[in-house]
Amino acid sequence: MIAARGLERTFPGRHGAVEAVRGVDLDVAEGEVLGLLGRNGAGKTTTVRMLTTLLDPTAGTARVAGHDVVTERREVRRRIGLVGQGGAAGSEHRVVDELRTQARLHGLGRREAAERAARMCADFGLEGLEHRLAKTLSGGQRRRLDIALGLVSRPQVLFLDEPTAGLDPHSRAAVWEHVRSLRTEHGVTVFLTTHYLDEADQICDRITVVDEGRVIADDTPEALKDATAGDTVVIATRQVAEAAVAVGRAVPGGRVDKAADAVQVRVVEARRRLADILRELDHAGVDVESVLVKRPSLDDVFLTLTGRSMHEQHAQPDQNEPRERRGQRGGGGTSRTASEAAESPEPAGGTGAATASDGPAPGTAARPVPAARAASPAAAGAAARPAATGTATATPREDQ
Ligand SMILES: Nc1ncnc2c1ncn2[C@@H]1O[C@H](COP(=O)(O)OP(=O)(O)OP(=O)(O)O)[C@@H](O)[C@H]1O
Ligand SMILES: [Mg+2]
Hints:
38% helix, 14 strands, disordered C terminus, Alpha-Beta Plaits, 4-stranded antiparallel sheet, Rossmann fold, alpha/beta, binds magnesium ion
């Protein structure tokens, strides 16, 4: 459903070019949920923007839902949904109108659009807010509307760029629940990025880890954990020295660490080695108080692969990143309303306008536009409102 080969994107920068994505290959099967993980600045959003036709690759190719993201942009847009990192919902229009309009733009009939809009409000805790102007919603409520907008048309492929950033735990769970049901009930292919590794672990069939614009690992969460991090076996005992020797014998080549009253060792598939470890401890006459086997987390995988924990990143802003982008972290990206965006169509720093080939129609950044929108004057008229409202945020922010 998604196939990318040698995808690259370079941005010109004041201190030299920024190589955001440096030759990424990706394959996502139909109905698969793929999680793209990486630290701030690793190239995730840039990859998502290329796959959703919002940004042309500097090199390489990609096909999404059977169409080329550069030469068949319109065909791709018709089949995908996007919840962009920047968010979209902040308009002067009512929540329910935003949802219905979005559904209509993707070709749903009036009745179905109304039904889908109501369903989205129910699923994403927007009931009671249907008639509020989108711009008056709280940050978390707006993010939920963003997600509802991305899903309302039931796309074949759904891109979610940090969909749950800034949401409370209850809302996060609701989003993931919905993503799960999209996959199981409708076979939707999902491409998501998130910094919540425990959630990625639970929801993703496959994880691709990117670092500095390159793929450094790609496998199921379980295989990644087994292959890169292994389990940790912790043996609590007062005879630390003897225990360390015994454990070393049971796990040749394994790294054995000693603490005041415990010994721990990293081992792949601990359940297969536990009997050996306990036998050696017994032979050595070690009095074992407790044994604990800890499965690695995806954060352990991350640490092993990159030498840094995923959670360290928030303290270390990416120096390549333009200042106006850095300021938007952590709040779910909904900091700017459509009306603010409309007032300043270029970002403060003005790091460059979209090129003609990159340029999506205004307002397409957050929600890919069905072909009909550009194809006829009537459709263009219908598109005018949402283009000028809910989607305006992403275009000026995501400068080229
Ligand atoms: N429009 C742009 N102009 C210049 N550099 C850019 C632009 N967009 C992205 N970059 C740079 O490309 C690199 C990758 O950015 P990208 O937004 O893809 O990262 P990310 O993995 O999504 O990070 P985050 O986790 O913070 O969202 C960063 O160094 C970033 O500063
Ligand atoms: Mg990003």
